[in-house]
């Protein structure tokens, strides 16, 4: 019961007789009325590895019995009733080393020994990824009414997807790697007008943002090469034989 009382900001007294109990109860009630009201203010979230400030500036107490100490439990495994740090300032800074919810506990103590308790939950998020660098080695290969783009992943390998833009800056498609860690990527546009130049840029992205573009690069779709027709050769051979072995122009 002592541990439970201390963990929740309560008071422990000893009473050997009924009279002692009544006296202690009255004292506890009076103390409860004079105890400080702990005010805990937490940020919306914190990031692993980055300092974050927690505030007890909202605490109120009897002016004749001011708060002289703030005890902080940062929710990182320290048992309830125990504290990671004590400050005389209502503001404390700490840094979390792993992601997840943290149940923060604050105990405020006055000069006379009265205490108040407040709790709150702080969500700690993982360190965000860096924005990717631009894709590397962008190449454009023309084909029969089509264009094939090839590129490699940025040097920091932090891209989760790629965006192909046309020359006007309009996004044509988001390209997803087919496997984690894929470094060589390709995209193909078909049904293009042969002989009409096409301009493209490729950007890399992840949850933190989008890179600068690789390119622009311009390429012109071409027509398919003509094929040799054996029937046409046979026609000319017969024509040569008809004219005595001489070809007429």
Summarize the structure in words.
The protein has 249 residues and is mainly beta. It has three helices and 15 strands. The strands form four sheets. The protein has a five-stranded mixed β-sheet with strand order 1-7-6-3-4, with no helix packed on it. The protein starts with a helix and ends in a 7-residue tail after the last helix.
Quick rundown:
By secondary structure, the chain is mainly β. 14% of the residues lie in helices and 37% in strands.
Estimated structural class: mainly beta
Distance between the termini: 117 Å
Count helical runs. 3
Describe the sheet with the most strands. Answer: 5 strands, mixed
Helix and strand layout, with pairings?
Blueprint (H helix, E strand, L loop, with lengths): L1 H6 L10 H17 L10 E3 L4 E4 L11 E7 L11 E3 L3 E4 L5 E11 L4 E11 L10 E8 L2 E7 L8 E6 L4 E5 L8 E6 L8 E9 L2 E2 L3 E6 L10 H13 L7
Parallel strand pairs: 1-7
Antiparallel strand pairs: 2-5, 3-4, 3-6, 6-7, 8-9, 9-12, 10-11, 10-13, 13-14, 13-15
Give a quick set of tags describing it.
249 residues; mainly beta; 5-stranded mixed sheet; 5-stranded antiparallel sheet; rod-shaped
């Amino acid at each position: 019961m002592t541990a439970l009382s201390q963990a929740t900001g309560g008071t422990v007294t000893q009473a050997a007789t009924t009279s002692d109990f009544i006296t202690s109860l009255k004292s506890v009630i009076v103390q409860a009325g004079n105890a400080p009201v702990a005010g805990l203010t937490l940020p919306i979230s914190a990031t692993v590895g980055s300092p974050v400030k927690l505030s007890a500036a909202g605490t109120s107490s009897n002016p004749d019995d001011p708060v002289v100490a703030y005890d902080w439990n940062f929710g990182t495994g320290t048992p309830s009733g125990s504290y990671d740090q004590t400050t005389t300032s209502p503001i404390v800074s700490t840094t979390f080393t792993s992601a997840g919810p943290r149940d923060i506990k604050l105990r405020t103590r006055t000069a006379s020994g009265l205490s108040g308790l407040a709790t709150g939950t702080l969500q700690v998020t993982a360190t965000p990824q860096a924005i990717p660098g631009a894709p590397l080695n962008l190449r454009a290969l023309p084909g029969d009414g089509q264009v094939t783009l090839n590129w490699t992943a940025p040097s920091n390998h932090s891209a989760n997807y790629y965006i192909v833009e046309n020359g006007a800056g309009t996004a044509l498609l988001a390209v997803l790697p087919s496997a984690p860690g894929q470094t060589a990527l390709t995209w193909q546009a078909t049904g293009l007008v042969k002989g009409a130049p096409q301009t493209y840029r490729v950007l890399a992205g992840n949850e933190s943002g989008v890179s600068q573009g690789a390119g622009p690069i311009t390429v012109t779709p071409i027509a398919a090469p003509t094929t040799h027709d054996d029937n046409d050769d046979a026609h000319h051979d017969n024509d040569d034989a008809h004219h005595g072995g001489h070809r007429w122009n």
